[in-house]
Amino acid sequence: MAKRRKSSRDASQAVDEPVVGLRIVGGSLRGRKLQYSGDMRTRPMKDRVREAVFNLLGPQVAGSHAIDLFAGTGALGLEAISRGAAKATFIERHLPTANLIWAAAGKFGVAERVEVVFGDAFLWSAKFVTDEKQPLTVFCSPPYDFYVERKQEMLSLILRWIELSRVGSQIVVEADERFDFGSLPRAGEWDVRKYLPAVVGIWEKDEG
User: Fold this and answer.
1) Pick the residue with more confidence: 3 or 42?
2) What DSSP string runs through 23-47?
3) Segment holding 191, helix H or strand E
4) N or C end of the chain: smaller count of CB under 10 Å?
5) How many structural domains is the chain composed of?
6) Of 156, 128, 144, 135, the residue nearest 204 (C-alpha)
C-alpha cells in the first residue's frame, strides 16, 4: 500500500497559473531564475507543483544522484541540486535546450555536480549501469502525449529505473489524467497526487 506523505499543498487543488518567471523554489539556489523559451513542448513543471513534489520527496533528495530523464529546462534536476543532491544527470534530446541547462549549471556555480547528456532518454536508460551505492532520485516528466502514443515504452522505462534503484531511491512520474497510474509497475506502491492538469506519482525503494 502506498505510504501517505505530508504536503504543504492540497493535492486535489488545480494549479492552472501560467508558467512565467521559472525559478528554483527551495534550497541553496532558491530564487535563481531559469531560462525558458515559452515553447510549451518543453512544458516545465510549474513552480508550485515542483515545490509540492519536493515537499513530498523530503530530505532523502540530499546526497542522492538525481536523474532528469526528459530534462527540458532542467528545473527538476537543478532543484534537486539546490536541495542537496550529490550530483545530477540531465537527458535532453534538443541540443539548444541541453546547452541552456549546462549554461545554467555554470551560472549557478554547480557545474562540477552536473552532467548534461544530449540524447534520447529511452536509449540512454537502457544502457545505464551503476555500481554506486547512493540512492537515485529519478524524474520522469516527458510530454504527456508519450503516455498515450508510447505507453508501453514509458512503462518499460519506469520499470527499468525501479530495477536500477537502490534502497532509499525515489522515482517521480508526471503525467495527466489520460494516463492510468494503476498500470504502473508495482502499482499499489505509488503515492499519486493531482495538481491538475498534472498528476504526479512517487515511488520509493524500501528495505526488502
Assistant:
1) 42
2) B--SSTTTT-B------TTT-PPPH
3) strand 191-195
4) C
5) 1
6) 135
Residue 138: which CATH number?
A: 3.40.50.150
Q: Is residue 12 part of a domain?
A: no
Residue 158 to residues 54, 92, 141, 170, Cα–Cα distance (Å): 19, 17, 11, 12
Nearest to 195 by CA among 11, 4, 25: 11
pLDDT score at 202 = 98
C-alpha–C-alpha distance, residues 200 and 71, integer Å: 16
Mean pLDDT of 124-129: 95
User: How does pLDDT run across 67-85, given as a tens digit for each residue?
Assistant: 999 999 999 999 999 999 9
Q: Does residue 81 lie in a domain region?
A: yes
Sign of CA dihedral 36, 85, 95, 153: negative
Q: From edge to edge, which strands make up the β-sheet containing 65-68?
A: 114-118, 87-92, 65-68, 136-140, 170-175, 198-204, 191-195
| Three-class secondary structure of residue 52 per DSSP | helix
pTM: 0.88
Average the pLDDT over each of 123-132, 148-157, 179-188 and give the range with the smallest value. 123-132
CB neighbour class for 100 (10 Å; exposed up to 12, middle 13-18, buried from 19): buried
Task: Give the residue numbers spanning the domain of 180.
Answer: 47-204
Q: Are 159 and 183 in contact (CB under 8 A)?
A: no
Question: Does residue 42 form part of some domain?
Answer: no
Q: What is the DSSP string of 74-90?
A: -HHHHHHHHTT-SEEEE
Which cell numbers in the block locate residue 143? 510530454
Asked if 105 contacts 36 with a C-beta cutoff of 8 angstroms, the reply is: no
